[in-house]
Amino acid sequence: MDIRSSDARPVLEGPDIARVLTRIAHEIVERAKGADDVVLLGIPTRGVFLARRLAAKLEEITERAIPVGSLDITMYRDDLRMHPPRALARTEIPGDGIDGRLVVLVDDVLFSGRTIRAALDALNDIGRPRAVQLAVLVDRGHRELPIRADYVGKNLPTSLRETVKVQLAEEDGRDTVLLGAKPDQ
Amino acid sequence: MQRHLISAADLTRDDAVLILDTAEEMARVADRPIKKLPTLRGRTVVNLFFEDSTRTRISFEAAEKRLSADVINFTAKGSSVSKGESLKDTAQTLEAMGVDAVVIRHGASGAPYRLATSGWIDAAVINAGDGTHQHPTQALLDAFTMRRRLIGRDAGLGEDLSGKRITLVGDVLHSRVARSNVDLLHTLGAHVTLVAPPTLVPVGVESWPCEVSYDLDAVLPKSDAVMMLRVQRERMNAAFFPTEREYSRRYGLDGDRMARMPEHAIVMHPGPMVRGMEITAEVADSPRCTVVEQVANGVSIRMAVLYLLLGGNEPAVSHARANASEEK
């Protein structure tokens, strides 16, 4: 979804994002008591970059390699029939699989919750994790399903007339979260 | 991409690459313990086979079931077609049942086109082979196999086959596989050479985007992939070559000939193989021969085509690729 750049205002900048990810990494270690069996799965596109950054931070904290992968949920979306089919992104499950592990799903924005519902379905087909948790950079509210994030970078109360755009250096050349008005339909 | 897949010639380069890339992701599903996706849940696909085919029908059926579509198999034998029902009547019956897609194999060239354009039926039509005309999913799976083997599984994503030299050998005249492959490989930027006895080269081949040669040995050292075609005796109504032995001597692929191919070159065959005539057992069983891979790749390609034609509210068109909304 595009955003009118003129009235978009940054709510998180590069250093904030780095700080937020560091905090989430510490929270994961604390809740998982050492992150022994943690597997991070990012949801394409930007969730994957966030998952990789989180994994790097977790490795710094625990001095252990943290398996990280990606989970494409396109084929599991409930709105497939409302749009033309999208090109598929990559699903990459770490070699040891997810059975019996603590899977932390990572995404940039939590909104209706439908993406996460689809991700839970996709996980079902891939294995049986011990538990599934959710980490998001921004929670903008407006949930349509009973889904809640375990780790939130920033709670961002928004109106439905607004749009949240996350830009990450890997894809967009810079780190920022923009809040702007939805382009006229 | 259009609503139907009738001919490999209808595909643009971008559409073809999108199908190949999508198939690469579909292939990963085959590696999972649960080889199933909910994508086409509630959609009905009919496999309408007027001509015998086990390989293609099973391949389509596997693809449809992996995408959770409801599958109806229809074979002309034992159906009302043998009582004299026309294609139109069959189509209207299917339309009344509310099918979403028809996969059609027919002995008459053009039957899928007729079905798609006549207005008898609203469903998407996928050509699974019509007469001596086209077999687009076969061409796609062949291109997919070539891209995987010659460029690489991950390295090939987004790539076409530019600069690759592909040789098709044998019964070009009766081969829909050859026609589809020439069209698609040309679109993908490959350089195609047909090698066949002069009697098995179709009239009008000069207008095809490929070269024609009668000398297999001269072409082999310059080929990245050599595809042997089946000699379609059931379609032959005259003697096209003196004896099987002579055909085999001039156009068959044996170990000696395979040794003249470049180190990296692969041998392909759409199957079913006539061992000893088109291809020796030594070649067919060598690791350079991709026949079994082609079968596995066929399921991935057909899943990709079904997803791209039926997965959304309209077929995947080129402009819709990047700007689909990012609702969370």
Overview features:
heterodimer; A: 185 residues; alpha/beta; Rossmann fold; B: 328 residues; 2 domains; five-stranded parallel sheet; four-stranded parallel sheet; 35% helix; globular; disordered C terminus
The CATH class of the largest domain in chain B, by name, is: Alpha Beta
Low-pLDDT stretches of chain B:
317-328
Gap from first CA to last CA of chain A: 11 Å
- Shape annotation of chain A: globular
Strand runs of chain A, count: 8
Helix content of chain A: 25-40%
CA-based shape of chain B? globular
Number of helices of chain A: 4
Main sheet of chain B: which strands, in order across? 7-6-5-8-9
Helix/strand-derived category of chain A reads: alpha/beta
Percent of sequence in beta strands of chain B: 5-15%
Annotated CATH topology of the largest domain in chain B: Rossmann fold
Rg of chain B, Cα atoms, Å: 20 Å
| Biggest sheet details of chain B | 5 strands, parallel
Low-confidence stretches of chain A: none
Written as H for each helix and E for each strand, in order along the chain, the element string of chain A is EHEHEEHEEEHE
Q: Work out the radius of gyration of chain A.
A: 16 Å
What structural category arises from helix and sheet content of chain B? Answer: alpha/beta
- End-to-end CA span of chain B: 27 Å
Query: What is the number of strand segments of chain B?
Result: 9
Arrangement of strands in the largest sheet of chain A:
3-2-4-5-6
